[in-house]
Structures are given as structure tokens and as C-alpha cells.
Amino acid sequence: MKIAYFLRDDGACGYYRAELPFTAMSRYTPHQTYKLKSGESDEHLEAGLTGAETVFIPRLSDARFIALARELKKQGKKVVTDFDDNSFAVSPLSDSYKYFGTEEVRIQDPQGKIIPVWIDGQNIDIKANKEKMNLTKLGLKEADMVTTTTDILARTLSEFNDNVRVLPNCLDLNLWRKLPVVRKNKDEVRLFWAGGSSHYEDWVLIAEPLKKIINKYPNVKLVLLGEKFDGTIKDIPPDRIEYHPWVPTPAYSYKVAQLDADIGLIPLHPNSFSECKSNLKWIEMSALEVPCVASYVSPYKEWATESNGVWVQDNDPEAWVEGLSLLIEDKLLRNKIAGEANRDMKKNFDIESQYHRWVEAYRSLELKQSKPAEENRRLM
What we know:
Elements: E1 2-7, H1 12-28, E2 32-37, H2 42-49, E3 54-56, H3 63-74, E4 78-82, H4 97-100, E5 105-108, E6 114-118, H5 126-142, E7 145-148, H6 151-157, E8 164-166, E9 189-195, H7 200-216, E10 220-226, E11 241-244, H8 249-258, E12 263-266, H9 280-287, E13 292-295, E14 310-312, H10 317-329, H11 331-349, H12 351-379
Parallel strand pairs: 1-2, 1-3, 3-4, 4-7, 7-8, 9-10, 9-12, 10-11, 12-13, 13-14
Antiparallel strand pairs: 5-6
């Protein structure tokens, strides 16, 4: 079996949803995978597509790629696409709404004043976004198989395609390893959060609890990677905050490990978009043996146990304070939870033990392709 797969860019989606699993397939099985990237020569693209039974095109929502998918299918090839977010339910409080929102948004402040948030023709193009959503639906329907990260998102996508397979986000544990970091301040407890600008709603959930924690424990430091929502941390002394900007995807695992977190923070505001995410933040922290305090909502509650994390019901602010206090004060408990989480992670999200799920999914396409031919032979 030969699979050609497109990488749109060098970002995390391309890595987790394509490069990591397809590289594992090539490493551990006789199946061939061939990477194609935008900007490469026509000769390279042709070489990659020649002989490929299946072609993977991520986020099939572009008119050019949909046209390519149709041409490939005419040649007898199978086309697979992957979506790891619910593009149909992006929150207006996310900056990604600019690219996916299909309605204007105005909100009313506590004084009754109407504030324009997303206004067509000013900071959003409603017509273009509606066309993008229509193309997304068309791309989903055009694919022979759709892959995604969770059962919840699969149910959403199955409205447009009846062949949706769940292939979870996994890690290469050769890269995600705890580092022997030597600390200057051995009493310091480092609370770690990583995320982009779309996580404002999530961060607001813990802004007040964190302020209480910082005031309560002078040895606690807040470590941020990626986005920093300054307005939510204005009451925390600057010397208690350590900020790091994003790094390229290949360096990300090393960067996170180098920051030597004691406790991972995973707040998540429950809505239709959030519940379709994957539990990747918990997976990453667990790989590094970092215990997490997290919102008890999908996609985390499906993997939550009493021993693999501290899970905050209903995002209650006092429960956040209690959960963080519990782990800050008890290092042995931190180690116990981290160990259990690490075992659960290795069992379910190590690419070396999970790559077979990709093999089985793509083999099912091959079998589906050969079945009609076998039936035709029986009728002759």
C-alpha cells in the first residue's frame, strides 16, 4: 500500500495528523508513505502521486484541492481528508472567528451599551466565510474517508460523510521526555500553561483562582508559553510570571520539557467548539510526568480517572483553588498522579503502539476498493 500525503505547512496540525503517523507507518510496516509539500516541483509531486492508491489531503475545504480530489478519484485513487476542529462552531470570542464566522456579532456590556465585535465589511467577510463553510461541507462529502481525533467530532463530521474514522492525536515518546533540569530555586512550584490566542475564554476561567494562588503561595511561579492575556494577569506581580513565545513545531517538545513544569493548567470553557477538541494538552503533560489540574469537560472527562489528574467540576473557581492547593502542598501526590497519568498516556497515545489504527483505517479503504471487483467476478 502506498499513501501520498500533503503537508500544507510546518505547523502542529500537519505534524500530529499526518507526518507523525505516516512516518510511523513507513517505519514499522512495509507500507509506503510519500510526503508532498506545497511549493515543490511538479516532478516531485508527480513522483509522489504515481503508484499511490490513496492520497491524504488535510482539511479539504479549498476549491483547488477539491478539484484535485475529484481528478484523483477519476484515476481510481482513494482520497482521505482530516479535520481536527469543528469549523462550524468557532466561538465569537476567538480570533479564528474572522475566518469561520458566518454572522455579525454584537454584545451588550453590563451598562447596556451595545459593542460591535464582528461587523461584515469591517473585520470579517461573511460572504467569503459562508463560501468557505460550503466548500468544507463539499470537501467532507467528496472524501472516501474522513479521519478525526475524537468520537464527539466524528459525530459532527458524520453528518457529511458516512465513513469517519477516529485516529487520536499521539506522541513520539522518543521526543517527549523529561529532562534533567537543575533549578536554582528548589522550592519553586511552576504552574504551566501553553496555548494560542483562541483560548481567551478558557484563560478567563482561572484568572481569579490564579491570583488567589499566587497570593497564597510565595513559592509559586506562573509559566506561560504562546499567548499571554495581559488583562487577565494584571494583578499578578511581573516577577511571578515567566513568559516564553512560541517555537517551531520540531522544537516544541524540547521547549516544553525544558520549562520543567510541576503542575499543568488545562482550563476549558465548555461549548460546541471546545468539546470537539482533543485531549492533547493532557497527553503532552502526562508524557513529561507532569500532573494536571483540568476542567472536567469534554474532551478531557472521557479519559479522567480519580488517579490520573485533578478534575474541576463545573469550572468552579473555588474548586480550582482547592485543586491547585492540593498539588502545590503535596509533592508525593503530584508524583503519584503524574505516574498514573504517564501510564495511561503510554497505553493509549504512544504512536509506537497506536500506528496500527492508521494501518487498519487505510487497509479498510483498500478492501472496500477491491470488494466490488470480487463481486463483479462472481457475477460473470
